[in-house]
């Protein structure tokens, strides 16, 4: 081994200098012989002794260096091993399958896993699976996946975990114990404690600003019939309750109008309000000094914006959304997320029709400046959406505007009403067109009127919304996260029974008046009848006033009733659905409607859901039907459960008493299971 040992570096340079000096001495010795032989011999003896000394030093240093190198390597390995074992950063080695091979002291103290315990990393950190362990394969960006970083929580501490692939192919290649035909590697895992940083960031986030707006959404209605002195006392008590409630979460309240308050609080306080599910909404209703109607609140909170001004805008949008959904609820708006709380009480009908008159005038102004009018409702249109579209057509026609109703599919329930206008010489042949025809015919100066829906994704033709610069929305459903943006005119009244009721009111305020034909009055009247289940559900004074107006305009009650009679197959399907109903949690009727042989399965399911509400003790009914590879849910209730919030949780929406949802390419049993899980979760959280 000593023969193979070679000296390099500075030691080699040192010996080369000594040899060079010896060569110089030899070169100097030759001239000395010519000057003095005896002096030359003396120098020669010195040179010989010099080289003997160099040789002795070389032989000694080689042996010494070899011993020192072996000793240093041994001590260095021990020191390095001790450093790795005593390193304060938890560190471990594992194989490619996640089985732990070696751990240092810090890792053992943290997890309790010793070097002798052969566990997998998944047993300690379930978040680290085999799919998260780098294996050197080529990723989508063309690079080798040799490192992975993730964050997780372990025993109340937060860690940033670095997982790296360590190549050991060269180490194994010359081993007498192992051999490998391909690349071999170990996996190193390093844990960096970021608990203090996480706590500091969370504390900073908790202190960030949140802005809230609190509106008394039925201010005028609640004070009707209340003496002036009592009204002042009622408002004072409510204001005191709001101030006390916000003060309890370290917030600030400022009254900005007689029925509006602005609230400043920390984000941490908003989380507290969420945990309490905004019980201020219920507390305010308990204030009663003789008023017939309880005062209700609408709360909008904005947080998470990049600026304070953006949080204010979020709060305004949130409170508008709360009011648009009927009031008596709280809405929290953050970037990319909206949360709803409350909304359990029945919305109250407003007695005044001033808003209808103002909207009617605004609608006429918009129509007067346009060359084309397109009217459409929701996909798989029903009698209410078509009847409302007919009412808007009457307004446009009275102003001499060319109008089209966009309708793709005519269901069996809608067919009798549509037949009144098809092949009728009083109406143009292109009165009713499909989506393709509408997109072809639309011009630069067209207005689109959307009725009975405010979700663009489920309108008859979502593309048409982008083609029209002027958009009018008339709807009676509660607003959700998805709305038609930048509408020129938006008339959304959640308390209205139907879109036909709203249009019937607007018709009464059109200048110069409109004389409806009998078929037009029947269409509008039929929409009210269908959406109120023959004036049983969600009816108010204004509903009957609208019906009376249509009756005076020529609507015939008997004729409308005959239009909506069921055929035998539909009636049998409803009866079979009711027979097979399952009562869930003693309060909810769940049924599957097999209406494949019916022309309008969704209508049959909706009618079956209405029938199930006649069962004593049932708070809500849910009927499922499979139609065109889509599972439809028809949800109904009377007054105890808000089915809208249930359907919104499942991706749908609607009214407090009438709602629904759709699931494409799904199985009925899976959707039923999802509904049951949703009911369980919402019941346990007190949301229903």
Descriptive key words:
688 residues, alpha/beta, six-stranded mixed beta sheet, six-stranded parallel beta sheet, 24 helices, 23 strands, elongated
Mind sketching the topology for me?
Layout: H1 10-35, H2 37-86, E1 91-94, E2 100-103, H3 105-111, H4 121-124, E3 147-154, E4 157-167, H5 169-173, E5 185-193, H6 195-206, E6 209-216, H7 219-222, H8 228-247, E7 252-257, E8 260-266, H9 267-275, H10 280-285, E9 297-302, H11 308-324, E10 329-334, E11 337-342, H12 354-368, E12 372-376, H13 383-398, E13 402-406, H14 415-419, E14 432-433, H15 435-441, E15 446-451, H16 462-467, E16 470-475, E17 489-492, H17 499-507, H18 518-531, H19 541-552, H20 557-563, H21 568-579, E18 582-584, E19 588-593, H22 601-612, E20 620-627, E21 630-637, H23 643-649, E22 653-654, E23 658-664, H24 668-684
Parallel strand pairs: 9-10, 12-13, 12-15, 13-14, 15-16, 16-17, 19-20
Antiparallel strand pairs: 1-2, 1-5, 3-4, 4-5, 6-8, 6-9, 7-8, 10-11, 18-19, 20-21, 21-23, 22-23
Report a brief summary of the structure.
With about 700 residues, this protein is an alpha/beta fold.
Fold and architecture overview:
With 688 residues, the chain is α/β, with parallel strands linked by helices. It is 43% helix and 20% strand. A 6-stranded mixed sheet has the order 7-8-6-9-10-11. A hairpin with a 2-residue loop joins strand 20 and strand 21 (630-637). Helix 1 (10-35) runs antiparallel to helix 2. The radius of gyration is 41 Å and the shape is elongated. It starts with 9 loop residues before the first helix and ends with a helix.
């Amino acid at each position: 081994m000593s023969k193979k040992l070679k000296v390099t570096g500075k030691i080699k340079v040192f010996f080369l200098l000594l040899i060079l000096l010896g060569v110089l001495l030899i070169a100097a010795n030759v001239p000395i012989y010519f000057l003095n032989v005896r002096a030359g011999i003396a120098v020669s003896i010195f040179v010989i002794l010099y080289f003997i000394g160099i040789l002795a030093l070389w032989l000694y240093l080689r042996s010494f260096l070899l011993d020192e190198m072996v000793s240093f390597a041994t001590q260095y390995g021990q020191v390095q091993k001790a450093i790795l074992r005593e390193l304060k950063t938890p560190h471990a080695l594992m194989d490619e399958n996640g089985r732990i091979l070696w751990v240092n002291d810090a890792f053992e103290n943290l997890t309790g896993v010793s070097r002798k315990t052969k566990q997998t990393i998944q047993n300690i950190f379930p978040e680290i699976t085999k799919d998260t362990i780098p294996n050197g394969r080529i990723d989508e960006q063309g690079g080798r996946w040799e490192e992975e970083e993730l964050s997780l929580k372990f025993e109340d501490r937060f860690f940033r975990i670095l997982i790296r692939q360590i190549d050991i192919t060269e180490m194994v290649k010359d081993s007498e114990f192992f051999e490998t035909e391909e690349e071999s590697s170990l996996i190193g895992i390093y844990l960096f404690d970021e608990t203090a940083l996480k706590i500091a960031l969370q504390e900073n986030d908790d202190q960030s600003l949140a802005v809230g707006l609190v509106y008394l959404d039925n201010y005028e209605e609640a004070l009707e019939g209340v003496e002036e002195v009592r009204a002042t006392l009622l408002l004072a008590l409510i204001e005191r309750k709001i101030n006390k409630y916000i003060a309890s979460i370290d917030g600030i309240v400022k009254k900005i109008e007689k029925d509006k308050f602005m609230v400043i609080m920390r984000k941490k306080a908003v989380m507290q309000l969420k945990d309490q599910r905004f019980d201020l909404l219920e507390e305010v209703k308990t204030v009663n000094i003789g008023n017939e109607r309880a005062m209700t609140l609408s709360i909008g909170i904005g947080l998470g914006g990049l600026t304070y001004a953006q949080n204010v805008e979020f709060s305004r949008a949130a409170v508008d959304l709360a009011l648009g959904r009927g009031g008596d609820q709280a809405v929290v708006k953050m970037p990319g997320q909206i949360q709803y709380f409350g909304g359990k009480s029945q919305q109250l009908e407003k007695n005044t029709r001033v808003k209808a008159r103002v909207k009617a005038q605004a609608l006429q102004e918009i129509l007067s400046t346009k060359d084309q009018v397109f009217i459409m409702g929701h996909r798989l249109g029903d009698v209410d959406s078509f009847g409302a579209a007919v009412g808007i057509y009457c307004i446009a026609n009275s102003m001499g505007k060319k109008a089209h109703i966009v309708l793709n599919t005519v269901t069996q329930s809608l067919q009798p009403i549509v037949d009144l206008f098809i092949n009728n010489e009083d109406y143009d042949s292109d009165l009713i067109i499909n989506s393709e025809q509408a997109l072809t015919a639309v011009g630069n100066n067209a207005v689109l009127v959307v009725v009975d829906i405010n979700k663009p994704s489920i309108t008859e033709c979502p593309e048409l919304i982008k083609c029209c610069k002027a958009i009018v929305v008339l709807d009676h459903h509660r607003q959700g996260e998805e709305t038609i943006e930048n509408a020129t005119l938006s008339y959304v009244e959640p308390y209205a029974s139907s879109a036909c009721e709203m249009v019937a009111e607007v018709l009464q305020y059109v200048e110069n008046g409109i004389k409806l034909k009998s078929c037009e009055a029947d269409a509008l009247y039929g929409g009210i009848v269908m959406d109120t289940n023959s004036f049983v559900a969600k009816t108010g004074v204004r509903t009957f006033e609208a019906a009376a107006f249509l009756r005076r305009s020529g609507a015939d009650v008997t004729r409308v009733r005959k239009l909506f009679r069921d055929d035998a197959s539909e009636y049998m399907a409803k009866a079979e659905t009711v027979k097979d109903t399952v009562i869930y949690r003693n309060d909810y009727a769940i049924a599957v409607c097999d209406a494949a042989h019916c022309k309008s399965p969704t209508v049959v399911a909706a009618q079956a859901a209405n029938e199930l509400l006649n069962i004593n003790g049932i708070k809500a009914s849910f009927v499922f039907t499979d139609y065109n590879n889509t599972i439809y849910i028809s949800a109904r209730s009377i007054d105890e459960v808000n089915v809208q919030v249930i359907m919104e949780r499942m991706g749908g929406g609607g009214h407090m008493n009438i709602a629904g949802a759709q699931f494409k390419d799904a199985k009925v049993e899976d959707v039923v299971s999802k509904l049951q899980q949703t009911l369980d979760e919402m019941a346990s959280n007190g949301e229903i």
